[in-house]
């Protein structure tokens, strides 16, 4: 089974037509890969579907805007993979999961 | 359908918030200046307006699901397929359903039929935000009343 990072990287490569081999765990989705907010909606849709979660994009954006978090925490891909793993774990731990 | 005001939906026929589906009707005007140019001697409804009609149908569905607390704005159109001509005077039946509810965005699919004939379809993505201006909320309330939006559907839970 591929890692969360690999799944995200494959989604980004397919969604944004970015060569897969240029997408690294340390890549920043916005600063390094040039993904804009509209493309990120597509990526979020694909990630939500692939992992059965709802990425809290609005909450993350608010935290960045409020200075409570940096974009690196959510948009460096290995960090994004870690956030997704946390969301999947939380979903699986929820009652009725 | 009031093309000059970009109001493409005439009435809501069915709204099912549990299944997240909506059916609306829209009467294409028998005559309009648009048809003088599109096209002379062979008037057909422009595909962009059919796409907008699908977007407005989806928008009313999303407004209902979000209990008129947020306003959806069209962000992306995918797989838009114009499958047959729509003529002046046609009555459109538009079905839309929510495919995904994300954080700050939603994805719908929609279809336009004339009678039983499928005329076009598309997958649509919307961003949604709290109403950015009180006038817009007032306008949407008035439009909801005009097109028969079943407000009880969002107050009966």
Automatic annotation (TrEMBL), chain A:
InterPro entries for the chain: ACP-like_sf (IPR036736), PP-bd_ACP (IPR009081), Ppantetheine_attach_site (IPR006162)
One Pfam family cited in the UniProt record for this chain: PP-binding
Domain Carrier: 2-88
Lineage, top ranks: Bacteria, Pseudomonadati, Pseudomonadota, Alphaproteobacteria, Hyphomicrobiales
Name of the protein described by the UniProt record: Acyl carrier protein
Organism: Bradyrhizobium jicamae
Top-level lineage group: Bacteria
Keyword hit for Signal: no
Keywords of the record: Phosphopantetheine, Phosphoprotein
NCBIfam families reported in the protein's UniProt record: PRK06508.1
Cleaved signal peptide residues: none
TrEMBL record, chain B:
Single annotated GO MF: lyase activity
Keywords recorded for this protein, A-Z: Lyase
Superkingdom assignment: Bacteria
InterPro entries (UniProt xref): FabA_FabZ, HotDog_dom_sf
Keyword Nucleotide-binding: no
Keyword Lyase: yes
Protein name per Swiss-Prot or TrEMBL: Beta-hydroxyacyl-ACP dehydratase
Native source organism of the sequence: Bradyrhizobium australiense
